[in-house]
Q: What sequence folds into this?
């Protein structure tokens, strides 16, 4: 199984929307998942696979709907999954759409890995969209939702030409609920199977999509590839703090980077919908600290400012040091060189 991994908050929004009219349930949901409304509203934010697992378990328990994924599939509007969805909808065929889903799924969830398995490897000689590596903290209902969304969108685009030949899940459900899945998918649905997969005939996969748009697809693929290459690695909250510190650095006068009174922690914590202590605790769980991330950002900024030709005094001020001597000591701790030695080494390089 992939170790760690993270999930975009985009994938948890349907669960939040499902509880929108129940404030008590939402409060319980946020407490249990350690998520916040602010994080869920941030399109670029991510959460851990464990949080995603807990989120689904809580949503099902609070809604009292064991087949919640099926209801959500009918309620999720077009475009809810951003560029990944639009790439799929603009693809020439259903096969191309599913291949794009496989390629760009990491933008939404890199805790699992899926593949389009050929007939020679699939069940009953059929191609299969299969989960080939499960998350270390599985959320089975998220696979139900994925397949249900494909079924709904596929039927919406292809009409009667769309058909699924079988759906398999490795998890179990209660017998009295299983029939709802067969009615929804219109095919044989099995649980406690060897693989989590959705089966297709070649004819269905090769069906042309009426939403295909080659010109738009080229633009969307460039955007998806850019996001794929630029998405920072790292544990979810650590990545979010790095991002917020880097964003704040664009306005040095108001930046938490330049604060010397300890308020910087509270500024970032507030943006994440957390208290300062909660932020420190969660960063510790991820093996780092706010101070370490702040120093990392300061070092990166110092390098950038020096390359722009700023003086040592100017860089010291922009980074929030009370005096140049404090900046000297910190810079040597980061790099092993004083700012003067660092600039001299760059000049002679």
A:
């Amino acid at each position: 199984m992939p170790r760690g991994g993270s999930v975009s908050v985009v994938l948890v929004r349907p669960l939040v929307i499902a509880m929108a009219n129940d404030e008590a349930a939402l409060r319980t949901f946020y407490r249990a998942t350690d998520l916040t409304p602010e994080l869920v509203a941030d399109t670029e934010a991510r959460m851990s696979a464990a949080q995603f697992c807990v989120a689904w378990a809580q949503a099902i328990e609070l809604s009292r709907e064991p087949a919640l994924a099926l209801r959500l599939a009918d309620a999720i509007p077009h475009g809810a999954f951003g560029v990944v969805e639009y790439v799929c909808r603009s693809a020439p065929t259903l096969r191309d759409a599913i291949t794009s889903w496989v390629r760009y799924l990491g933008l939404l969830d890199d805790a699992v890995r899926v593949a389009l398995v050929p007939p020679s490897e699939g069940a009953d000689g059929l191609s299969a969209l299969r989960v080939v590596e499960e998350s270390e903290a599985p959320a089975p209902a998220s696979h139900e939702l994925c397949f249900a969304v494909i079924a709904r969108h596929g039927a919406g685009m292809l009409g009667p030409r769309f058909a699924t030949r079988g759906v398999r899940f490795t998890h179990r459900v209660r017998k009295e609920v299983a029939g709802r899945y067969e009615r929804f998918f219109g095919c044989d649905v099995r649980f406690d199977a060897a693989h989590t997969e959705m089966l297709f005939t070649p004819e269905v996969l090769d069906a042309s999509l009426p939403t295909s748009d080659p010109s738009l697809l080229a633009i969307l693929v460039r955007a998806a590839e850019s996001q794929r290459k630029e998405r920072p690695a790292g544990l979810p909250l650590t990545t979010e703090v790095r991002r917020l510190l880097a964003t704040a650095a664009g306005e040095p006068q108001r930046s938490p980077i330049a604060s010397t009174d300890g308020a910087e922690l509270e500024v970032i914590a507030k943006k994440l919908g957390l208290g300062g202590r909660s932020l420190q605790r969660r960063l510790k769980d991820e093996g780092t600290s706010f101070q370490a991330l702040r120093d990392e950002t300061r070092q990166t900024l110092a390098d950038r400012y020096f390359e722009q030709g700023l003086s040592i005094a100017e860089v010291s001020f922009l980074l929030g040091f009370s005096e140049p001597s404090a900046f000297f000591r910190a810079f040597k701790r980061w790099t092993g060189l004083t700012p003067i030695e660092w600039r001299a080494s760059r000049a002679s390089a």
Summary: The beta strands are 6-8, 46-48, 113-117, 127-133, 166-168, 189-190, 197-200.
